[in-house]
Amino acid sequence: MINLPLGFGARNLQRGSTGTDVAALQSALILLSISVGSWGADGIFGAATDAAVRAYQHEKKLVVDGIVGRLTRAALEADIFGKKAVVCVDLSQHNRLTDARNDWAVVARNVEFLILRCGVTRTFTEPLGIGIDAEFAFAAGKCREHGIPFGCYYYGKVATAAEGRQEADMCWNTASPHDPLFYVYDVEEDILTDAVINAWSDQIRKNGAEKIGVYIGGKYYTRHIRTLPAFDFIWYPRYGKDNGLYDPQYTPPQPCDLHQYTSNGKLPGINHPTLDLNRLTGTKPLKWFLAE
């Protein structure tokens, strides 16, 4: 029987491992109708358990290496305890969302929600100016098709309040037909001022957005702190070692609701080597982000 508080522990499990966490792993595989050999959940990670883990990884389209690391453990916990491998991933055209090797049904099983870039103000690449993300509509369509909850964000890079309102209009006109859960303004450029940020938040509200957030961290958090009350949630990037894992040493130093903790993460179903992964922090539960 699975020890729910223990789950599958935090260490990597592989051939040669022993202990109660191995027994929990074996019990989970048995519940999923995958044989771990005649000895059952004996707490010894032998050849039969190795074969069982590899079979599970193959079924889930994970790396088939026989090692129960973060993603394999998360997938098992999702199947047994109702959790998903990743809380949130933000995606843009840079992640090659139209790649035919992506499997959106697998994505749906492994992520609670996505945040899709709907637009960006370009200053160096064509087409210049306020514009859309070329793969947003495609990704939004895949989310609707597979029942993946999603919000959207706009990467801001303008100098005046009037342009900030234009960015908000572009964000709304591009994303609202797809009915995202929320709208986020991405603040990580020196050109942005309090006036621009306030103009964007005011305009997106006037357009009809009911839930809005701001992506902001580091020096920009301090610089624009007066603008933050206009937003319903704060999304803060802080990577630390940026090795694909969350490290408690690098928890955001400022109050926030969503923490982007790595740019080198993985999400089963998306064929891209480096993804931005996010975790909930603060007081807002998952259901708050998923509520329409």
How would you explain this protein's 3D organization?
This protein is of the alpha/beta class and 292 residues long. 33% of the residues lie in helices and 19% in strands. It folds into two domains: 20-81, PGBD-like superfamily/PGBD (Muramoyl-pentapeptide Carboxypeptidase, domain 1, Orthogonal Bundle), CATH 1.10.101; 86-290, Alpha-Beta Barrel (TIM Barrel), CATH 3.20.20.80. The protein contains nine helices and nine strands. Strands 1-2-4-5-6-7-8-9 form an eight-stranded mixed beta barrel, surrounded by four helices. Strand 5 (183-186), helix 7 and strand 6 form a beta-alpha-beta unit. Helix 6 runs parallel beside helix 7 (194-207). The model is unreliable at 1-6 (pLDDT under 50).
Offer a few descriptive terms.
alpha/beta; 2 domains; single chain; eight-stranded mixed beta barrel; Muramoyl-pentapeptide Carboxypeptidase, domain 1; 9 helices; 292 residues; TIM Barrel
Q: Supply the helix-strand structural class.
A: alpha/beta
Q: What is the overall silhouette?
A: elongated
User: How much of the polypeptide forms β-strand, as a percent range?
Assistant: 15-25%
The domain tally reads 2
Instruction: Quickly give the CATH architecture of the largest domain.
Output: Alpha-Beta Barrel
In CATH terms, the superfamily of the largest domain is Glycosidases
Low-confidence stretches: 1-6
Numbering strands along the chain, what is their spatial order in the largest sheet? Answer: 1-2-4-5-6-7-8-9
User: What is the overall number of helices?
Assistant: 9
Distance between the termini: 38 Å
Radius of gyration: 21 Å
Largest sheet: 8 strands, mixed, barrel
**How many beta-strand runs?**
9
Instruction: Kindly report the CATH topology of the largest domain.
Output: TIM Barrel
Order of helices and strands: HHHEHEEHEHEHEHEEEH
CATH class of the largest domain: Alpha Beta
